[in-house]
Amino acid sequence: MQAYLDFEKPIADLESKIEELKHLSSEGEVNIADEVGRLQEKVHRLLTQTYAKLTPWQKAQVARHQSRPHAMAYINTLIDDFTPLAGDRAFADDNAIVGGLGRFRGRSVVVIGNEKGDTTETRIRHNFGMAKPEGYRKAQRLMQLADRFKLPLITLVDTPGAYPGVDAEARGQAEAIARSIETCISVRAPFVSIVIGEGGSGGAIALAVADKVFMLEHAIYSVISPEGCASILWRDPDKAADAAEALRLTSQDLLKLGVIDQVVSEPLGGAHREPLNAITRTGDAIEKALDDLAKVPGAELRSRRRQKFLDMGSKGL
Fold first, then answer.
1. pTM for this structure?
2. pLDDT of residue 17
3. Which DSSP string corresponds to the chain?
């Protein structure tokens, strides 16, 4: 069953009516094809109007939608012969970050992603996509593997942020994130990162210091969650909508600021309505980026990447 967000109530009402009419028609009671067609056109218009003027807070809700495709959906669809690699070779395996080797449209790649999980059981197993130090150290190991074998690197970012627990801090969370960012900058492999849902704080940046950084149309990317920002600035999490506005966390804002390189359009109504369509569009964007990056020597890629992020700092972003 389709899960609807608060601002989608008029759409939910119309689609519920369409389902009722289809049920009546299947029982042979009445032919309602014309009425269903009229209602579907109305739904399409309403979706178009609604999603053309989403507020930043509404975009945050879309980015977090429970049916939005997560990293493993992208990997299972886009990556052939995927071989997952586990562990950081020091402490443990962190299921919040998944990664391994595979083939993307004919080329061997290393792919890494934050995985949130789709059910209560898998969400708990993947810790809702919030990685601990061992997760970032696993990511570093995979990045270094890509660098060693000159394999293109793809990262799929979707996390509220790094895990804030005491155990993670005790094992060096900040150091692990910093080392991960350092590794992102140092690899000579072509590197593409896509924010597919939430890009939260350093937990996202640790995987996203790439040659090309993309965002899906309704994804968000910010230094802190709107709720966290509201709690700090106003001591009131109910002001999350105001915080979302101030954070400039939408893909459109970040493209204007030069933080990202491209916005990947989503199907009408968000990626959760047509996951395969959204994943295919993302794959097309990745393929074009890797084709372009393949023409550049590794040492030059590394130099350009480093300068790209230094320039962001010099502009005061």
1. 0.92
2. 86
3. -----GGGHHHHHHHHHHHHHHHHHHTTS---HHHHHHHHHHHHHHHHHHHHT--HHHHHHHHT-TTS--HHHHHHHHEEEEEE----SSS---TTEEEEEEEETTEEEEEEEE---SSHHHHHHTGGG---HHHHHHHHHHHHHHHHTT--EEEEEEES-S---HHHHHTTHHHHHHHHHHHHHH--S-EEEEEEEEEEHHHHHTTT--SEEEEETT-EEESS-HHHHHHHHTS-GGGHHHHHHHHT-BHHHHHHHTS-SEEE---TT-TTTSHHHHHHHHHHHHHHHHHHHTTS-HHHHHHHHHHHHHHHHHTT-
